[in-house]
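Good morning,

Attaching, inline, the backbone tokens for the sequence recovery test we're adding to the shared suite. The designed sequence is right after.
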């Protein structure tokens, strides 16, 4: 990454363990796309729902040359699951961008599962 990772916490105390998980997952993203210029992660507990308890959000904003990847997943009761889901979505998006840039497009075999008469 060209710029340092930015981690922001809203309405939640950012522990060293949470920060370590976010840093580790952000470093892993560079395996899938090595041109990441910046990465901003926001971890938040917006407000309490009386029926559901605390729901956590994790959103990621990644800047790459010529594009930006923005990930915002559904809130989850477990903060670590919310972080995991957001980074998995970011990984998939970066992999798709890298694949398109390499012109390595996935093709489906339309005849798969169909027998051809001989």
């Amino acid at each position: 990454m060209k710029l340092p990772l930015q981690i922001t916490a809203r309405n939640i105390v950012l522990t060293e363990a949470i920060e370590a998980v976010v840093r580790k997952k952000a470093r892993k993203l560079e395996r899938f796309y090595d041109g990441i210029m910046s990465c901003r992660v926001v971890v938040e507990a917006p407000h309490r729902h009386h029926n559901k308890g605390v729901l956590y959000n994790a959103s990621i904003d990644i800047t790459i040359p010529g594009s930006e990847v923005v990930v915002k997943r559904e809130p989850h009761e477990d903060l670590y699951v919310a972080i995991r889901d957001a980074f998995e979505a970011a990984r998939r998006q970066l992999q798709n961008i890298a694949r398109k840039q390499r012109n390595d497009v996935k093709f489906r075999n339309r005849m798969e599962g169909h027998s051809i008469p001989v």
